[in-house]
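User: hey, got a sec? need DUF1232 domain-containing protein folded
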Amino acid sequence: MENEYLSKPLPSEEKQRDFYQKLRVKVHNWLENKSSKMDSAAQFVLFAPDLFHLLTRLLLDSRIDKKSKAYVGAGVLYFMAPIDFLPEILVGPGGFMDDVIVAVYVINMVLNRFPKEVVTEHWAGDEDLLKVLSKLANSGDRWAAKLPAGKAVKRFLK
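Assistant: Yep! Here you go:
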């Protein structure tokens, strides 16, 4: 039986862009309200909007195969799900930490299957994508070990 959500079309590019912009503003405002010393969690969350945008662009790229798109689509849905391991509704933008962990794993999987140019051309962030992924993966392993999402993703992608 096909899930009714999987048969629905993706939101329009305009709606995706609106969500991306709202997410960036929300994360930026949250970071401004943090103390002047930005902790590692805040640095992690800072990349959530850009990673979400990258996943949505990869989902629409015709060069990505269906199996990889299924993983990418799962990453997009995890961002949009109202209930996850760290729900944003309860934790605020800090709840994007688990979304970032899922996104990093999915993007790394895509990078291992396709030339990096296929992925990096969709990157909208200010920093180099591979440097961002490396930074997030290095510090993220510590966070992933503490969060159920990180453990679940590692088991799922093995």
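Quick note: The radius of gyration is 15 Å. Let me know if you need anything else on DUF1232 domain-containing protein.
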